[in-house]
Automatic annotation (TrEMBL), chain A:
Gene3D superfamilies: Glutamate synthase, alpha subunit, C-terminal domain (2.160.20.60)
Lineage: Bacteria, Bacillati, Bacillota, Clostridia, Eubacteriales
SUPFAM superfamilies reported for this sequence: Alpha subunit of glutamate synthase, C-terminal domain
Protein name (record): Glutamate synthase
Domain named Glutamate synthase alpha subunit C-terminal: residues: 21-177
InterPro entries hit by this protein: Archaeal_gltB, Glu_synth_asu_C, Glu_synth_asu_C_sf, Glu_synth_lsu_3
Stored Pfam families: GXGXG (PF01493)
PANTHER family: TUNGSTEN FORMYLMETHANOFURAN DEHYDROGENASE, SUBUNIT C (FWDC), TUNGSTEN-CONTAINING FORMYLMETHANOFURAN DEHYDROGENASE 2 SUBUNIT C
TrEMBL record, chain B:
SUPFAM superfamilies per UniProt: N-terminal nucleophile aminohydrolases (Ntn hydrolases) (SSF56235)
Record protein name field: Glutamine amidotransferase family protein
Transmembrane is among the record's keywords: yes
Record key words, sorted: Glutamine amidotransferase, Membrane, Transferase, Transmembrane, Transmembrane helix
Gene3D superfamilies on file: Glutamine Phosphoribosylpyrophosphate, subunit 1, domain 1
PANTHER family: AMIDOPHOSPHORIBOSYLTRANSFERASE (PTHR11907)
Parts of the chain that traverse the membrane: 285-308
Domain of life, source organism: Bacteria
Glutamine amidotransferase type-2 domain: residues covered: 13-359
Length: 240, 364
């Protein structure tokens, strides 16, 4: 079914989505309505326009596709399901995410994957086709973040202080050199065949969703960042 | 009613700005539509607008917008204004009675120039003379508050939601090449008309989303140079800092951004020598003007607009361009509400100023 979001307050729009018995819903003329599909499972939602902050927060199995850009905190604390952004996403994409997948075709803002975590079978993924801002994977405790830097002119497709506070999980960066300012508590190494095997399925999924050539994605090197357990964080914020 | 100075207010807020580089004039309807989209970011305790190029017939005169809480305040303030300025127009600012806006003060405006003789006697530059008069009125005359004091620009603000404030001031009747807007979310006070944004000093106006943690360090420093931070709000101190650095010290706006949202030392260390030396100099000389904590601001000034985020980018800000138009807002939806197909949309990095100015030769 189609829902016209024109001039609708987020409460009304979200209620309409929630009470609908249909499982496939298209939202037209979306403009800044927050919390869309919050906590939702079992539905497939397509959004035309610009959804507001906290799109798919606490998502619990639903699938969301946005034809356009998303704003801040997309997938905030999501648990399960998938969010596809056929454009760019704002700051704190995948904030405290603990399961499910987020695929962004374009860029993500600052602090993508902040506080991301994993537990037992829950293993979240954020995959960014373009670049990200600073503080990628800040305080990351689990899960996987992949930044492809497709169409990026920069040597490194991430901003400053990537992985600050990282103490779990993995960050994959597709680039020929590492960020200059990696924190000492993060260790970096070229991706091993085992590392690449881990994300092979994810890359295939990304390429399928956005019609990107897999060979091109694999034509550059990947680095893998993980927490350096021999050099853990302490007294980090006493120096500025 | 308690004023801002009595209680501290952290705030949430929304900002939006529109700028035409070719000087094309727009009335206030578009900026109202834009800020309306972000209604839920404010709570009805403050909204306001700044508009540039709106007083073409009096463009060479200072336009003072003043709130009065009492008849005595008006009498005293007008005495002060008339003693210092050759005032050619004194009138009530037109407003629309509406149930959403209550407890209005009397709102007046005056157009005038400082008396030549006084400028000579005081040996002050014209703008400094005006700034001192404004500070004097705002600190010494009870219940009088000058909230706008630039040439060919004006601030319009009130307690209420921004879309209501825009209608209240009949902004459809003003035409400017630049508009900024603010929706406020103060959480600790009843809100006060003077405490709404934009804050203005001369032709500088600031709308601000955030809460700075360096307020007291900034205030102590800036008060050494004749400013009085009477409202205890961070936006007021940011306005004075920009006035001090740009007008008094002659720093470029890019340099101002490098002072208030300075790069971290470890970033500076990695830069080429010339840049490293310059940034080291700025950080050392103006260390007390580094603004820390989250902020996203829009600075309006004669002929231009600057958008800036704090260096850690703890607040959201999106910029879009379409032809000669530049749009900035806390959320992309506020831009899409008035421009459905921008040529380019991007989020500036923390501490990276976006500065737009009128094209060469445009006199707006």
């Amino acid at each position: 079914m189609k829902i016209n979001a024109d001039n609708k307050h987020f409460k009304d729009l979200n209620n309409e989505i929630r009470v609908s018995e249909e499982t496939e819903i298209t939202v037209e003329n979306c403009l800044g309505q927050r919390y869309i599909a919050s906590g939702m499972s079992g539905k497939k939602i397509t959004i035309n326009g610009v959804p507001g902050n906290d799109l798919g927060c606490y998502l619990n199995g639903a699938t969301i596709r946005v034809n356009g850009n998303a704003q801040d905190a997309t997938g905030d604390t999501m648990n399960e399901g998938m969010i596809v952004i056929n454009g760019s996403s704002g700051d704190a994409t995948g904030y405290a995410m603990r399961g499910g997948k987020i695929f962004v075709k374009g860029n993500a803002g600052y602090r993508a994957g902040i506080h991301m975590k994993a537990y037992q079978t829950h293993h979240p993924l954020i995959m960014i086709g373009g670049e990200t801002g600073s503080f990628l994977g800040e305080y990351q405790a689990g899960g996987t973040i992949v930044v492809l830097g497709l169409n990026s002119q920069k040597k490194v497709p991430v901003g400053n202080l990537c992985g600050t506070g990282m103490h779990g999980g993995k960050i994959y960066l597709r680039c020929e050199e590492l960020p200059e300012d990696l924190p000492k508590q993060v260790q970096a190494a070229p991706a091993s065949p085992e590392d690449m095997a881990e994300i092979n399925g994810y890359i295939e999924e990304f390429c399928g969703i956005f019609a990107v050539d897999k060979q091109e994605v694999l034509s550059k090197n990947f680095y893998v960042l993980t927490p350096n357990t021999k050099n853990p964080y302490k007294s980090l914020y006493t120096f500025n | 009613m308690q004023k801002e100075g009595d209680v501290r207010i952290p705030s949430g807020c929304a900002i939006s700005g529109i700028f035409s580089r070719s000087g094309k004039k727009m009335n206030g309807e578009a900026i109202i539509r834009s800020i309306t989209t972000m209604h839920d970011r404010s709570n009805g305790l403050g909204g306001g607008f700044a508009a540039y190029g709106i007083y073409p017939r009096n463009k060479d005169l200072y336009a003072f917008h003043v709130f009065y809480g009492s008849a005595r305040a008006k009498e005293e303030c007008e005495k002060e204004i008339m003693a210092n300025f050759d005032v050619t127009v004194a009138e009530k600012i037109p407003t629309r009675k509406m149930p959403e806006i209550t407890d209005e003060p009397a709102i007046w405006r005056y157009f005038g120039l400082p008396f030549e003789k006084l400028l000579k006697d005081t040996q002050l530059d014209e703008r400094e003379f005006v700034a001192r008069c404004v500070v004097k009125i705002n600190t010494q005359i009870k219940d009088a508050y000058v909230f706008s004091s630039g040439k060919n620009m004006g601030v319009f603000k009130a307690v209420g939601f921004p879309e209501d404030v825009g209608r209240y001031y009949c902004l459809e009747n003003y035409e400017g090449y630049c508009w900024t807007a603010h929706g406020r979310y103060p959480t600790n006070t009843p809100g006060w008309w003077g405490g709404a944004h934009p804050f203005a000093m001369l032709d500088y106006s600031i709308v601000h989303n955030g809460e700075i943690s360096s307020y007291d360090a900034n205030r102590r420093f800036i008060e050494m140079f004749g400013y009085k931070c009477t409202l205890l709000t961070d936006t007021e101190v940011i306005t004075y800092i920009i006035d001090y650095l740009n007008r008094k010290q002659g720093l470029s706006l890019k340099e101002v951004a490098d002072v208030i949202a300075a790069p971290f030392w470890n970033e500076i260390d990695r830069l080429p020598q010339a840049e490293r030396e310059k940034l080291t100099y700025l950080r050392n000389v103006f260390s007390s003007l580094l603004i820390t904590g989250p902020f996203s601001i829009l600075l309006g000034f004669s002929g231009g607009m600057m958008a800036l985020n704090d260096r850690l980018k703890l607040r959201s800000m999106v910029v879009a361009e379409k032809g000669d138009m530049t749009y900035v807002a806390s959320e992309e939806c506020a831009i899409r509400a008035i421009e459905t197909s921008p040529d380019r949309t991007f989020a500036p990095r923390g501490g990276e100023p976006v500065i737009v100015t009128l094209n060469k030769g445009v006199d707006a």
